[in-house]
């Protein structure tokens, strides 16, 4: 139990550093670690931990982007989404990005890719994705200005799931990408 609580303390400490505030955490009645041997403890739940990691990751990505003109990046990002029937934000070496491109290429779909690891604004675009769609991971794919997810995740399950369910072809046809 001490090992698990030590890991929990390390996770909470790390998240606190990235969050910049302790307001997202449950405040235990006793200081952290004071009840290591007892059966009662403060629980924030797995879902809350994942959410805290997501927020920490978004803040980390923003800090890695450095200083940038947020309004200009938001305008560029929204312009790309609005001007392209199918848009993918990607990294050139990401295996999930390669797989998502393979699905679209296999259908001979027309789509636009912005490689965030090559584009001069890539780090800033990725940082702003956190505010726009709630995540910073790639691939991030829009079809007809609707965020469908990535390769195999996201609000619509991503392009692999949409393809497996027979929905992707119709979506691509509807926006003129096939």
What do these coordinates show?
With 178 residues, this protein is α+β, with helices and mostly antiparallel strands. It has helices at 2-19, 46-65, 70-83, 95-106, 122-133, 158-164, 168-174, and strands at 86-90, 112-115, 140-143, 146-149. 51% of the residues lie in helices and 10% in strands. A four-stranded mixed sheet has the order 2-1-3-4, with helices on one face. It contains seven helices and four strands; from the N terminus they run αααβαβαββαα. It has two domains: 2-65, no CATH class; 70-174, Glutaredoxin.
Looking at how many chains there are and whether they match, the oligomeric state comes to: single chain
Termini separation: 56 Å
- CATH topology annotation of the largest domain: Glutaredoxin
- The helicity comes to 40-55%
Q: Estimate the strand proportion.
A: 5-15%
Secondary-structure element order, N to C = HHHEHEHEEHH
Secondary structure blueprint with pairings:
Blueprint lengths: L1 H18 L26 H20 L4 H14 L2 E5 L4 H12 L5 E4 L6 H12 L6 E4 L2 E4 L8 H7 L3 H7 L4
Parallel strand pairs: 1-2
Antiparallel strand pairs: 1-3, 3-4
Helix pairs in contact: 1-2, 2-5, 3-5, 4-6
């Amino acid at each position: 139990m001490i090992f698990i609580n030590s890991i929990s303390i390390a996770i909470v400490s790390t998240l606190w550093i990235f969050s910049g505030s302790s307001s997202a955490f449950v405040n235990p009645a006793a200081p952290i670690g004071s009840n290591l041997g007892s059966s009662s403890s403060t629980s924030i739940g797995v879902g809350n931990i994942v959410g805290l990691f997501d927020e920490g990751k978004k803040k980390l990505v923003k800090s890695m982007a450095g200083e940038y003109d947020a309004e200009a990046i938001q305008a560029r990002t929204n312009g790309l989404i609005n001007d392209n029937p199918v848009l993918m934000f990607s990294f050139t070496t990401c295996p999930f990005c390669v797989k998502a491109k393979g699905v679209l290429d296999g259908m001979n779909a027309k789509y636009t890719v912005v490689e965030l690891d090559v584009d001069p604004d890539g780090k800033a675009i990725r940082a702003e994705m956190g505010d726009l769609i709630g995540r910073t991971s790639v691939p991030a794919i829009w079809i007809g200005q609707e965020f469908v997810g990535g390769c195999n995740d996201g609000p619509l399950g991503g392009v692999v799931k949409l393809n497996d369910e027979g929905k992707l072809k119709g979506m691509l046809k509807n926006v003129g990408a096939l």
